[in-house]
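Reopening this ticket.

The earlier resolution said the output was attached, but the attachment link was broken on my side. Pasting everything inline this time so it's all in one place.
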Amino acid sequence: MNTNLANSQALGRVKVLDLTHYVAGPFCTRLLADYGAEVIKVERPGQGDPGRRMGPFLRDHPHAEKSGAFLHLNHNKVGITLNLKAAAGARIFGELVKWADVVVENFRPGVMDRLGLTYSRLTRLKPGLVMTSISNFGQTGPYRDYKATEIIEYAIGGPMLFTGTSGREPVKLGANVGLFLAGQMAAVATLMAVYRNQRDARGDHIDISIMETQAGSVDRQTAMLVNHQYTGNRFSRLETQGSYLGTIYPCKDGYIDVRARERMPRLIAMMDGAEPLRGPLAVVSETSEDRVKVEALERRLLDWLSQRTQREIWAKTQEHRVLTAPLYDSSGVLEDPHFRIRGLWTKVESGDSGLLEYPGRQILMGATPWRVRRPAPTLGQHNTDIYCGLLGYSPSDLSRLRQMDVI
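Inline output:
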């Protein structure tokens, strides 16, 4: 497993055992793998990570080896199967722990205890081990055994109360943002523990609560919680309303957000033809004479926007220091030349699925760059490499372990 390519990266000497599934845990370990960590993903024999059954699927064909989510979250890892509930499986896992620097798991609290794989036992096998546990509400407290999904974390964490239309019920914004955030924070915490371990070899057991990472996130929640502490204000959904030259407008190929109210002279100069406004430009009252002129200017702006694409408008307004933003859909982000030039997207050869394109690196590091070294593993793909090559088992041992449903 140790390659010169991996060792040239920032985390090239970090060895990780990955017991995670679905989103938060796999994203944590993938971030580590992306920058060189050697990650062994341990999956349940015959079934594997339930994330293998998450869509979307290539060509809409559900298959355990063709889940877009799984392939994206697990590249740069090697994969084995191991039944941790079997005594032989737990014993073999102990052998792997002696190799590892880090164990990452996201079982329900108490599962590792029932498997006989408590942190205290694992550190007897490998002093200085770092173990990162990711769960819905953390390893302690009255909610530790509560089940949860992304929507529950989003609701109890706070942001859901602020999203949606004023006067209507709250709604959840799409996708698994909270789970990805928890995985990212778990990766950061793991690296802090690894760094400290290099200094004093003490190890650490990291407790990541998905709800707490949501409650303390930059998705408006932190600022509003701090504001409440100082003012007592309770925040709810804001009124949805536009303002003159400060709202979303249609253009030739979609929508554009224009924030030009305080920059009307620049907007006028850009369009070359509108009548200059006089008097205060930042405030437009209901009765002012300027209001009529602004409405005429807005009609002129709509006509100007309708003849241009999002990228043309964005480039032109940047030249004139007028704030705008294209409202990209997924294809807009994928095709944007800036992101292409900077290498945000990467192509991964994924076995039967062929060459697939995914969002790539999170950050740019000049000396120790992000790399795709291998696609996500098929179920049990590296059993022989790990059990025979790393642990010294014979092919007949592997055959016997398969018959016993251990691997």
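Reporter confirms the inline version is readable. The longest strand covers residues 38-43. Residues 177-200 form the longest helix (24 residues).
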